[in-house]
Amino acid sequence: MPRRTVVFAPATATREQKRELRRAIADAARSERPAPSRRKDRALPDAAVPGPFGPGLAEGGYWNLAAPEIPAHQATSQHIAGIYPFVADAGLGHRGPIVGVDLNADALWHFSPWESYADSTDRGAFSTNILVLGAYRAGKSAVVKTLVTRSLAFGHQAVVPSDAKGEWVVIADAIPGGTVIRLGGGRTTRLNPLDRGPRRTSSTDEQHEQMVRQRRIATLISLVEMALTGARLTAVEHASIHDALEQCIAATGDRPTLRGVYEQLGHMVADRDGDPRVAEGAVQPRFVLRRFVDGDLSGLFEDESTVSFDENAPIVVVDTSELFARGDLVAQLTQVCATAWIQAVVSDRSAKRTRYVIREEGWRDMTSLASLQMYQQWLKLSRHYGISNIVILHKMGDLDAVGDADSHERNLAYSIVGDIENKFIFRVNHQEQTSLQTRLNLPAPHVDIARQLRKGEFLAYVGQYSYLVDCFSTSTDWEFELFKTDDAIQPTDHEDPYASPFTTADLDAVWPEPLTPSDAGLDGWLTTLKETS
After folding, report:
1. Residue 224 falls inside a structural domain
2. Chain centre distance of CA 162
3. CB under 8 Å to 479, separation ≥6 — which residues?
4. Count of domains in the chain?
5. CB-CB neighbours of 309 under 10 Å
């Protein structure tokens, strides 16, 4: 059988270098050929030996004296990769914490949204935000916790504005220096969503005042419109809220609260000598804020804050699990208030801090036009503040709770989610096939893969590239026990179809030594993790 030669040329090689390579290959091939013999020395076939075309003759009537000469095959690496499937992608490099194993390259997969944003090549991303999408029990929460916890060793911090299930409380309690702020359940903890927040050192007095005022107005309007189940406020109602806020700021020495705004709206309604249109516009917002002062949300957000945000804490969690039993609307209002209080602190670009902001049940922040606009603005400015928003959804259908069908609110919600460049897609149900292709523009083969993923596996889209990652293959026993969220579900005797194919022995190939906090404590575990990465 004739021998074929396959030559790989570097993609960066110049034409002259490629010509030199071809000449060298041709010279090497000539040197391997046997020296031609003289005609008188050639052993011609015996004419007496019968052949298929006559005595000693080949097809065509000529003597078959030598093997045919076949030129070497040349092709680009893109085509050669189809012939040799072991040619794999190089991944994202080794910057950032280890998140799992790249199943296509059979190598460790590192990821940091800030490192990816700083990468100027085509592997970089233009945003630090992350969309996490997947069905129940697909491993979303555990993977996010793995990413966030391992990132602490690299100097990053984390904030959970509203922990509806109380699962992040366990993480904060396990991290040295972690802070938990608990709301509800008869506690006296208060958060004031109208807090001024710390002064941004790089801003002027005028810029700082304008940013504080805009954030306060946006928070008030979001709360009122959300409580009105998406109804738009009129221009007069907007003006009434503005006037009430300004009067509250003046009366309290720039320490406004929801209770103070509620009282100012009451004065406007009772003022017989004032503008009747303004008084009429103050009625609706006043009834909404009454819920925070005397209603089902009292004792949480109506007065000044009783706690402060620890800027140096590695992770800060606002535990709202006691409030979510009161209904979806209470949960949404709570999430807006807690998020507004957090944003007043973390949106300081000059602080040079990098934080994850984990938004569990991310659709709850988008239930009104005002909250959507505030949400969109926050996502756009996140990279300037050093923020990586992690938006977690169970399915794209979660956004159907935003507005009516084909409404401006719902289309804006889908647009916001679709614009998040970094995506972690976990196992999805077959009903999601159309949404993933139309809303997120995922290729059909990728959607088929997403329907067959095991627990802890996900498709990662970073910049222009995609990766198939298994997170649980690098998880230690301590991490796996801490991050799991299925405590209420008892294991059965049959094998879990989504269990990781890796065993404990496989960890030796990933980590140089077992990473268990029981030996050296969590500080030693984080230090070893950073050195390994």
Report:
1. yes
2. 17
3. 146, 149
4. 2
5. 20
- Does a structural domain hold residue 177? no
Q: Which of 490, 522, 485 is nearest to 167 (CA)?
A: 485
3-state secondary structure of 9: coil
Give the Cα separation of 436 and 448 in Å (integer): 11
| Core vs surface per residue 452-463: b (16+ CB within 10 A) or e | ebbbbbbbbbbb
| Residue range(s) defining the domain that contains residue 263 | 192-304
- Residue 121 domain-assigned (yes or no): no
Q: Judging by DSSP bridges, how do beta strands 465-470 and 457-462 pair with one another?
A: antiparallel
Quote the radius of gyration of the chain (alpha carbons, Å). Answer: 32
Residues with Cβ within 8 Å of residue 342, at least 6 apart in sequence = 159, 161, 309, 316, 318, 357
> Which residues make Cβ contacts (< 8 Å) with residue 486, sequence separation at least 6?
137
SS3 86: coil
pLDDT tens digits, the chain, 533 residues: what are they? 455 566 666 767 788 888 888 888 888 777 766 665 554 555 544 444 455 544 444 455 555 555 667 777 777 766 766 665 555 667 788 889 999 999 888 889 999 999 998 888 878 888 899 999 999 889 999 999 999 999 999 999 999 988 888 889 999 999 999 999 988 877 888 888 898 877 666 667 787 788 888 888 988 988 888 888 767 788 899 999 999 999 999 999 999 999 999 999 999 998 877 778 888 889 999 998 998 898 888 888 889 988 888 888 999 998 888 877 777 777 777 878 888 888 777 776 666 789 999 988 766 667 667 677 777 877 877 777 888 999 998 888 878 777 777 788 788 888 888 888 899 999 998 888 888 888 888 898 999 999 999 999 999 999 888 999 999 988 888 888 888 776 544 444 444 444 444 344 443 443 344 334 444 444 554 555 555 44
User: Distance between CA 436 and CA 444 in Å, rounded?
Assistant: 9
Give the position of tokens 């078959």: 64
Q: Last residue of some domain: 255, 284, 304?
A: 304
Among 83, 106, 124, the domain-final residue is: 83
d(CA 124, CA 118): 7
Residue 197, domain CATH: 1.10.8
Structure tokens at 526: 């984080």
Task: With beta carbons less than 8 A apart as the criterion, state whether 506 and 70 touch.
Answer: no
Q: Kindly state whether residue 21 falls inside one of the protein's structural domains.
A: yes
Compute the half-sphere exposure of residue 461: CA atoms within 13 Å on the CB side of its CA: 24
Q: Say which residue the tokens 């222009």 belong to.
A: 464
Of 68, 60, 72, which is closest to residue 1 (Cα–Cα)?
A: 68
Cα distance between residue 311 and residue 459, in whole Å: 33
Neighbouring residues of 156: CB distance < 8 A, sequence distance ≥ 6:
112, 114, 148, 354, 355, 356
